[in-house]
Amino acid sequence: MFSWGVAYQRGDWDAAIGHFQHAVLTDPPSALWGWGLGSLFHARAVGGRRDEALSLLPEIKESLPRPAESSTGGRWMLSLFTIEGLNALGMKEEAGELYPLALSCLETGAVLRFDGRPMHTVAGIAAGARADWDAAEEHFEKAVEQMAPFRDSFESLEAQRFYAQMLLERDRPQDRDRAVEMLESALAGYARIGTPRHEAMAQDLLQRSALASPSR
Question: Which of 30, 70, 87, 93 has the maximal Cβ count within 10 Å?
Fold first, then answer.
């Protein structure tokens, strides 16, 4: 299953989806069950396979844990990947409804998702999806702080990109300037580590929001 991360970061999303489809088909019942299903949903959503992603939602909804109740690690991971997948599909209301699950994950003391993503990054996405801007900002600040020692790591750059996207959506005074700074930092980092798809996503945020700096 970890092969997907290499393919995903390199921009070979079809290969990443293939890895997860195989993982789901061969995933035996265990405490980790759900991780593969959630990851496949997320990969399809980000990879532009909307209908294929949506076809997984009925099973996902039946398998999600409930806030403040004990569950397996795999099902908690399912909830976190589902938040990101819904956000990628533009299903903000549905992603926001899962914010309590992200909080429940944080309350366990967990810091990182199994793939290395800070829990606060995902919580920030969920909070932003429900327009709980102050909570989203707090989560993203913590995610960026956690990744600060790893400045050029993929997750450090992703925390900046998602944070910038939230700031653009909130659009308070100074939010746009802060978002530009984060996006340009993320763009440079993506270029250094060789993640062209994510570099394009950050550039798209700048262009769609008319935020490209005069020097670009």
Answer: 87
User: Could you tell me if 32 and 48 are in contact, meaning their C-beta atoms sit under 8 angstroms apart?
Assistant: no
The pLDDT value given to residue 212: 42
Distance between CA atoms of residues 103 and 98, nearest Å: 9
- Is the pLDDT score of 27 beyond 60? yes
What's the CA gap between 36 and 82, in Å, rounded? 11
- Reading the block at residue 144, the tokens are 């960026």
Report the distance separating Cα 87 and Cα 123, nearest Å. Answer: 12
Question: In whole angstroms, what is the distance from residue 49 CA to residue 54 CA?
Answer: 9
pLDDT digit string, tens, across residues 41-71: 999 999 999 999 999 999 999 999 987 778 8
Long-range contacts of 209-213 (CB under 8 A, 24+ apart): 209/168, 209/176, 209/179, 211/168, 211/176, 211/179, 211/180, 211/183, 213/180, 213/184
Quick one: the chain helix, strand, coil %, rounded to 5? Answer: 70, 0, 30
CA dihedral over 52, 47, 183, 213, signed as positive or negative: negative
Nearest CA among 108, 118, 116, 45 for reference residue 72 = 108
- In angstroms and rounded to an integer, the radius of gyration of the C-alpha atoms of the chain is 17
